[in-house]
Specification:
The chain is 30% helix and 28% strand. The strands form 2 sheets. Strands 7, 8, 9, 10, 11, 12, 13, 14 and 15 form a 9-stranded mixed sheet that branches. The protein has a 6-stranded antiparallel sheet with strand order 2-1-6-5-3-4. It is an alpha+beta fold and 285 residues long. Strand 13 and strand 14 form a beta hairpin. The chain has 2 domains: 113 residues, Aminotransferase class 4, branched-chain amino acid transferase, N-terminal domain (D-amino Acid Aminotransferase, Chain A, domain 1, 2-Layer Sandwich); 162 residues, Alpha-Beta Barrel (D-amino Acid Aminotransferase, Chain A, domain 2), CATH 3.20.10.10. The protein has 8 helices and 15 strands. The structure holds 3-[O-phosphonopyridoxyl]--amino-benzoic acid. The site of 3-[O-phosphonopyridoxyl]--amino-benzoic acid has 16 residues, from helix 6 and strand 13. 3-[O-phosphonopyridoxyl]--amino-benzoic acid (PXG) binds next to helix 6 and strand 13.
C-alpha cells in the first residue's frame, strides 16, 4: 500500500502529493516545519511541537489555516491511516502558491503532513558515538533570522553539513556570531564536566529543541546537576563527555571533535545513563 500524505485537508497517495512550483516554500524557502517522533502510537511531546510550530508561524507572520485541534487530529489521522506504531512526522506549512516576487501576502498557505521513517545516523554510531567537526560557517545571527524559528530555510545548516561531509564526518558544530557554541546542523549540543550537564542558552542562537527540554527535565528527575550556559569551543574540547539531542537523532554521544578525543574518546557514563533514561521515557510519555 502506498503511503498516504495529508495535504491541505485531504489524504492523498504519496505519488499524488504535489505542491505548486509557484509555492513560496519552494521559491524562497518561505515556510516552517516540525519534525516529530511517534513512539508506541503516541505523538511524543505533541503539545510542545505544535506550540513551537505556531510560534514559528508568528515569527514569520504566517497564518496557519487550521486550529491547533485540527492539526493534532490531522497528525493522528495520518499516523493511523498508514498503520504506523513508531514513525516520524514531518509537518510543514509553506507560504503557499502565489506570484513570483517576495511579497508573501498574495499566497495561500499549504499544510502538509508526512508520516514516514527516518534515521539520521547509522546504527553503529549510536553504540560507538560520533566524530564531528566545528564548521567554519557561522550560525545565522538571531536578528537576521532567529534560529528559534524552525523555518524551511535550512541553507545555513546545510552549508555546515556539507563541511562535515567533506571532512568525512556526519555532523558539524556551529558557532554563533560571537564565536560561542550554538548547536549542530539538526541537533542541540550538550557537554558534561565534573558531573554537571551543560548546554548553550536560547540567547546563544539555538533552536529550543524539544528533545533538549526533555533531557534537561530527565537530568532534574535523576538528580544530575544541569545548566544552560554560554559555552566556548574550548569548553567542549576539555569536556568529559559531549552528546547531541534531536527528534531525528534522539540522544547520541560525541567522542571526537576536530580530531580531538573528548574525555576518554568513548561513550561516557552520564551520556549512557541519559540515553537509557530517554529511551525509557519516550515509551512512557
Ligand atoms: N537544532 C536544529 C537546528 C534542528 O533542526 C534541533 C536542534 C533539535 O530539536 P528537536 O526539537 O528536534 O529536539 C533541530 C531539529 C532532519 C531533522 O530531517 C532535523 C531535526 C528534527 C527532525 C528531523 O534532519 N532537527
Amino acid at each position: 500500500m502506498s503511503l498516504k500524505i495529508w495535504l491541505d485537508g485531504e489524504l492523498v497517495d504519496k505519488s499524488e502529493a504535489k505542491i505548486s512550483v509557484y509555492d513560496h516554500g519552494l521559491l524562497y524557502g518561505d515556510g516552517i516545519f516540525e519534525g516529530i517522533r511517534v513512539y508506541n502510537g503516541r505523538i511524543f511531546e505533541r503539545d510542545a511541537h505544535l506550540r513551537r510550530l505556531f510560534d514559528s508561524a508568528r515569527g514569520i507572520r504566517l497564518d496557519i489555516p487550521y486550529t491547533l485541534e485540527q492539526l493534532i487530529a490531522a497528525c493522528e489521522e495520518t499516523v493511523r491511516i498508514n498503520k504506523f506504531i513508531d514513525c516520524y512526522i514531518r509537518l510543514l506549512v509553506t507560504r503557499g502558491k502565489g506570484n513570483l516576487g517576495l511579497n508573501p501576502f498574495t499566497c495561500k498557505p499549504s499544510v502538509c503532513i508526512i508520516a514516514d521513517s527516518i534515521s539520521l545516523y547509522p546504527q553503529e554510531m549510536y553504540e560507538k558515538g560520533l566524530s564531528i567537526i566545528t564548521a567554519t560557517v557561522t550560525r545565522v545571527h538571531p536578528n537576521a533570522l532567529s534560529p528559534r524559528i524552525k523555518s524551511l530555510n535550512y541553507l545555513n545548516n546545510i552549508l555546515a553539513k556539507i563541511e562535515a561531509i567533506d571532512a568525512g564526518v556526519p555532523e558539524a558544530i556551529m558557532l554563533n556570531q560571537n564565536g560561542a557554541v550554538a548547536e549542530c546542523t539538526g541537533d542541540n549540543i550538550f557537554m558534561v564536566r565534573d558531573g554537571q550537564v551543560l548546554t548553550p542558552q536560547t540567547s546563544d542562537g539555538i533552536l529550543e529543541g524539544i528533545t533538549r527540554g526533555v533531557v534537561l527535565c530527565l537530568c532534574q528527575r535523576m538528580g544530575i546537576p544541569s545548566a544552560e550556559k554560554t559555552l566556548q569551543r574550548h569548553d567542549l574540547y576539555i569536556a568529559d563527555e559531549v552528546f547531541l539531542t534531536g527528534s531525528a537523532a534522539e540522544v547520541i554521544a560525541v567522542t571526537h571533535i576536530d580530531n580531538r578525543a573528548i574525555g576518554l574518546g568513548r561513550v561516557g557514563p552520564v551520556t549512557r545513563k541519559l540515553i537509557d533514561a530517554f529511551h525509557r521515557y519516550v515509551r512512557e510519555n
